[in-house]
Backbone:
């Protein structure tokens, strides 16, 4: 895979890259369009080798031109091809593509036909980058028609109806089996609705020179497993448990002990030397029955916490904290500390109620908690996940992890990282608590807040994929512990399972 596939660019940035390529190497839009069409047709043939017919839906821009190039190549190869054109080309390169395609005697319909598409493969070349509103009229009807067919769909650059920058779908969107994206990877393919709509994603930079990408800062980068492996500190022969870090978990209100214990297990799973749980007295005596390595301290009130903070390297607060007075007292005590902290679950809800900033903490909201931190709705968060996580980081400081499909990490230097691992089986109770413990355990071993957040998110998601295997339904948090242990003990490439 080209290394540029790890950088995510907005539609506007893609436009700048293409213009620079034209200046540097003379690569005009028509040349890029021909290369894109050739790449897409080759991939289409490889994925569906028995297909000999296609229907291509074309819009009006350069994405439209890519579709006509694919149609022309298929006709040259002897395929039966029809094109449904929803408008006239608006760019010179798209007009060139139309002229070249019409020389192949391709059937072109100006709108949707009553009989429906005839092709064995459907090609989506309707809408490209720059979508900001719901598709309407014939565009909406075309998208719905494609989705209703029991035939494979390939999308050129991105599924029509998907916002390339945010992963939002303001209206109807194509559900593809294969998406071939060009020049640069787009964040919308990896977060929000993107992963559900794109099917398999293949990236091709179309031969653009590396210089075309210079000085254009990508909006985000994918977290790489090799970088994660390199960030984990080596362990000397003489390492002792204190050197591996002592972590304190604050949580487990009355009747809510499970979350805090899962959090502690996550910290142990990635190598923390010692973990202490400060929890409600009602279950303190049984909290470590299944985890005798865990030290447990009953906390009746805030006043009993002072001695527990001493000697700890990291603090995790929130799992099972609850919304009562007991949890409020523990959270207030947490805010007074200067050690690195992970703020999770109910601690995030309390932070939303009484906003403060911090430089040494990791916030781990899911979309609901993010909405409360931003005083907005969950749909508003999901409509632009990159913007939401960046805004939370700006308001509250430190590092913010926005959980969900394509988990995002906004770090202190303004960079944005995206994790493209994980699976639907991880939508079960305790997964977030485990992640908080994983990040805390890495902090305890000396990683910075940014390193711990990125590494923790990737390790947690990758462990989830390994644990799920072919059977993601029924996955629970404790299933991730053994894969986590294996992953953190690999010294180089950790992504080869």
Residues:
């Amino acid at each position: 895979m080209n290394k540029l596939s790890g950088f995510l660019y907005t539609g506007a940035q893609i436009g700048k890259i293409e213009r620079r390529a034209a200046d540097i190497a003379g690569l005009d839009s028509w040349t890029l369009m021909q290369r894109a069409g050739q790449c897409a047709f080759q991939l289409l043939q490889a994925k569906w080798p028995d297909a000999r017919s296609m229907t291509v839906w074309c819009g009006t821009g350069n994405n439209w031109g890519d579709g006509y190039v694919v149609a022309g190549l298929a006709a040259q190869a002897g395929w039966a091809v029809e094109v449904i054109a929803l408008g006239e080309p608006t760019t010179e390169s798209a007009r060139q593509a139309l002229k070249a395609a019409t020389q192949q005697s391709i059937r072109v319909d100006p709108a949707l036909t009553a009989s429906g598409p005839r092709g064995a493969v459907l090609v989506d070349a309707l809408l490209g980058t720059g979508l900001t509103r719901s598709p309407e009229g014939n565009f909406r009807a075309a998208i719905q028609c494609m989705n209703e067919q029991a035939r494979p769909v390939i999308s050129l650059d991105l599924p029509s109806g998907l916002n390339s920058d945010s992963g939002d779908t303001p209206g109807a969107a194509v559900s593809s089996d294969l998406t071939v994206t060009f020049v640069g990877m787009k964040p919308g393919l990896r977060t929000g609705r993107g992963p559900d709509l794109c099917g398999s994603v293949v990236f091709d930079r179309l031969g653009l020179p590396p210089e075309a990408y210079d000085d254009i800062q990508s909006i985000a980068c994918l977290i790489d497993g090799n970088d994660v492996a390199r960030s984990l500190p080596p362990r000397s022969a003489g390492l002792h448990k204190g050197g591996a870090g002592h972590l304190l978990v604050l949580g487990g209100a009355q009747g809510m002990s499970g979350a805090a214990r899962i959090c502690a297990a996550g910290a142990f799973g990635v190598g923390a030397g010692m973990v202490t749980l400060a929890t409600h007295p009602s279950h303190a005596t049984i909290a470590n029955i299944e985890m005798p390595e865990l030290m447990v301290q009953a906390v009746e009130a805030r006043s009993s916490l002072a001695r527990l903070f001493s000697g700890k390297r990291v603090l995790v607060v929130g799992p099972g904290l609850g919304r009562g007075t007991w949890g409020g007292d523990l959270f207030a005590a947490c805010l007074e500390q200067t050690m690195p902290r992970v703020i999770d679950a109910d601690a995030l809800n309390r932070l939303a109620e009484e906003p403060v900033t911090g430089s040494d903490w990791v916030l781990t909201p899911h979309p609901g908690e993010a909405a409360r931190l931003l005083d907005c709705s969950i749909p508003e968060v999901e409509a632009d996940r990159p913007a939401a996580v960046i805004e939370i980081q700006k308001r509250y400081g430190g590092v913010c992890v926005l959980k969900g499909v394509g988990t995002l990490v906004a770090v202190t230097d303004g960079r944005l990282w995206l994790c493209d691992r994980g699976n639907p089986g991880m939508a079960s109770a305790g997964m977030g608590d485990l992640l908080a413990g994983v990040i805390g355990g890495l902090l305890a071993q000396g990683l910075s807040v940014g390193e711990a957040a990125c590494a923790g998110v990737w390790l947690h998601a990758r462990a989830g994929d390994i644990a799920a295997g072919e059977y993601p339904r029924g996955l629970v948090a404790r299933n991730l512990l053994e894969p986590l242990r294996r992953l953190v003990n690999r010294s180089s490439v950790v992504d080869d399972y």
